[in-house]
Specification:
Radius of gyration of chain A: 13 Å
Shape of chain A: globular
Order of helices and strands of chain A: EEEEEEEEEEE
Number of strands of chain A: 11
Largest interface: A-B, 23 and 26 residues
Structural class of chain A: mainly beta
Strand content of chain A: over 45%
Largest sheet of chain A: 6 strands, mixed
Oligomer: heterodimer
Shape of chain B: globular
Radius of gyration of chain B: 13 Å
Largest sheet of chain B: 7 strands, mixed
Chain lengths: ~110, ~110
């Protein structure tokens, strides 16, 4: 099956810093999502981005499907950005998502 | 409000007992999914259903069962055959076609004593 890797596994930032999270996948995909899991376990949709670039406030994401990776940018980080960030992909011809292991982000005040 | 609800939020059960987790959605989505998350890990797919009265095994279906009698509901039963059932269980739904977003419920934390 398709392999999904995320880096870094852990990231500690000072409030106000910028960061880039990466998601690599081993096969062609027709669907990719980024999620933020808050401390209560709720998964919050950030981006649905099988290709191209999107922005939403301080967050933006870019997927380069031909090179099999996606990037999530967080600018001017806030303590409320803390949590685990997951990417999930659906390979071409697949019927379900496969999740990466996540990046745990801690933003310190 | 449209959304996905899961109940209960916390569930405690004795070893050897079957337990059923509820998942309901009022988004009119065709597809529904169950995932398991262990501490510090990503999500793994247990079962999914793309249409009423049909469902497919995911990567870790052993010890679990599901039903899909109504479009809105996709309950998950954790049976006594599941060797290590303590985990966080998340339900999701999507419109159902390919190229579609998944939306998640708040989850159920199951602890087997």
């Amino acid at each position: 099956g398709i392999q999904v890797e995320q880096s870094p596994p852990d990231l500690i930032l000072q409030e106000g810093a910028n960061s880039t999270l990466r998601c690599n996948f081993s096969d062609s995909v027709n669907n990719l999502q980024w999620f933020h899991q808050n401390p209560w376990g709720q998964l919050i949709n950030l981006f649905y981005i099988p290709s191209g670039t999107k922005q939403n406030g301080r967050l933006s994401a870019t997927t380069v499907a031909t090179e099999r990776y996606s990037l999530l940018y967080i600018s001017s980080s806030q303590t409320t950005d803390s949590g685990v960030y997951f990417c999930a992909v659906e390979r071409v011809g697949g019927q379900n998502f496969v999740f990466g292991p996540g990046t745990r982000l801690s933003v310190l005040p | 409000d449209g959304g996905i609800t899961q109940s209960p939020k916390y569930l405690f059960r004795k070893e050897g007992q079957n337990v059923t987790l509820s998942c309901e959605q009022n988004l009119n989505h065709d597809a529904m999914y169950w995932y398991r998350q262990d501490p510090g890990q990503g999500l793994r797919l247990i079962y999914y259903s793309q249409i009423v009265n049909d469902f497919q095994k995911g990567d870790i279906a052993e010890g679990y069962s599901v039903s899909r009698e109504k479009k809105e509901s996709f309950p998950l039963t954790v049976t006594s055959a599941q060797k290590n059932p303590t985990a966080f269980y998340l339900c999701a739904s999507s419109i159902g076609t390919s190229l579609d977003e998944q939306f998640f419920g708040p989850g159920t934390r199951l602890t087997v004593l």
